[in-house]
Specification:
- The structure is a single chain.
- With 81 residues, this protein is mainly alpha-helical.
- It has one domain.
- It is built from three helices and no strands.
- α1 packs across α2 and α2 packs across α3.
- It starts with a helix and ends with a helix.
- The relative contact order is 0.14.
């Protein structure tokens, strides 16, 4: 049960930074943040997840790679290309 509480708090923490509606650095929707956290938590790793700023930044990198960069590529193909 403790891990569930940690995941909920970490999700809130990531949303406070990256949520498009109210985050400090608004770059993603709730759904995108949830997907990025899921990807991060399920990928193989040698280090444990501490739910800290390093983990938050790793989630941001997944958001940028999975959602933002792909959207930019799509825009360049459809609007500019």
């Amino acid at each position: 049960m403790h891990i569930i509480i940690e995941i909920i708090k970490f999700t809130e923490y990531c949303n406070a930074f990256y949520n498009i509606d109210y985050g400090l650095y608004p770059i993603a929707s709730n759904e995108q943040i949830d997907k990025a956290i899921f990807i991060y938590m399920t990928e193989p790793r040698t280090l444990k997840i501490d739910f800290d700023s390093i983990d938050r930044e790793n989630v941001r990198a997944i958001i940028e790679y999975s959602f933002i960069n792909k959207n930019v590529d799509n825009l360049s193909i459809t609007k500019l290309g």
